[in-house]
Amino acid sequence: MFPIESVDVVSREVELRGPQQVGKVGSPLREPLDSARENGMGRAGIAVIRLSGPETKIALERLGSALPPPRKAARRQFIDPHSGEKLDDGLLLWFPAPHSFTGEDVAELHVHGGRAVVESILEALNSVRGLRPAEPGEFTRRAFANDKMDLTQAEALADLVDAETRAQQKQALRQMGGALKELYDDWRHRLVQALAHLEAVIDFPDEDLPPEVADKVWGEVGELRQRIEKHLDDGGRGEHIREGLTVAIIGPPNAGKSSLLNILARREAAIVSAIPGTTRDVIEVHMNLGGYAVMLADTAGLREAGDVIEDEGIRRARSRAADADLKIVVFDGATYPARDAATAALVDSDTLVVVNKADLLSNPVGDAQFISVKTGAGLDAFVAELQKRICSKADTGAAMPLTRARHRKALEECRDALIRAGAADLPELAAEDLRLAARALGRLTGRVEVEEILDVVFREFCIGK
Ligand SMILES: Nc1nc2c(ncn2[C@@H]2O[C@H](COP(=O)(O)OP(=O)(O)O)[C@@H](O)[C@H]2O)c(=O)[nH]1
Ligand SMILES: [Mg+2]
After folding, report:
1. In angstroms, what is the span from residue 142 Cα to ligand 2's centroid?
2. What is the pTM of this model?
3. Are residues 272 and 357 in the same domain?
4. Per-residue model confidence as pLDDT tens digits over 45-75
5. CATH code, domain with 309
6. How many CB atoms lie within 10 A of CB 269?
């Protein structure tokens, strides 16, 4: 099926700057990982070069490496086929088809990660006819083509590679294990059966089909529709975990919003000053809060400004507040118990209400979280409450949630088709809608109309995998 083969992926070891602390106060997330994530080759202790396809055996021969027993690591020398010089001394793993990741013959060369070593081995491989570097996502695409996984599992693999928090990691692993595949396959199977029964009713109207056949079809379709609606109506939990939640800090000028962002981010991300109106644009920090990915946004203080730039900042603050999954509203303790009216108007059930500068208050009690960024008072309780709120937004409980807009779209299409089918005047029209509904489910796992969506799914992969 694939005439030209091979892939070389160089996997680099990721070095984190110091241990990631999750818990007490959020740890900054993206920054330390970014530098390690650029694709391609770099220096590392070990690099893994992976080959897939029928040419794999020939390639290993060319490198002078005898095949090890399947799935057992063996120490081998890798030799330049032209000069006979040694290129490296490493480990070789051999996964004969079909018991490999791609379902094809696969080999892994674990070599030293230096640039010269890797490049010289790639060059030697380059001289093998039919070998070429893999496209991004090609290994997984081949695994899909060879029925090693469905599309939701392929997506989960991409998510696992991208996972930065424990919750993302857990969700990706669960989906990779087939949690969504099983669900959607089961629904599709039921739908196809209902459709077959309906078609029997259409095709053999004069036969003695028991009258309850049609009732059964509609019972099944109704139940399926309910399940899909419940699955869709999950508050976007799975997507929240995967994409991260947005949390906006809003309040009047000088309340200490930027100070709060900085202490949560553990760095001076935003300028803090006693001058009201210092923050004029939205300042975002990606963080890991209690194992969940969060994008925390500091915003301009709400007031009647009159300065065009600050006005625009305030407009952005309001729009950010409206879009956020969760708001932290910060009131100024210096004016407590008076509360800024414009800010108070934004408080809703998705809001954590905070009064900062508790150090200025003789009796900091009331209907809010009292904190002092200056002294640290109340911060632990505040972070615990924040984590609790985030967790309740994202926690998925026992049921596996849908994790992507692609899933949501296909399921909505399916649900709409089921609704249309139920309302159709003629059984023929109902059957056509059931067919469309089944096709929408098939697109989720990649069972039908695959080609058009493959590119969308695999394009998201970075190098390798
Ligand atoms: N007394 C006291 N001052 C604070 C506290 N937090 C921040 N401030 C001060 O309040 C001023 C405004 O802080 P900033 O974070 O820039 O407020 P923002 O305008 O809401 O972003 C600065 O001078 C801070 O040093 C606090 O907990 N107690
Ligand atoms: Mg500020």
Report:
1. 50
2. 0.78
3. yes
4. 888 889 998 889 999 999 999 999 999 999 9
5. 3.40.50.300
6. 16
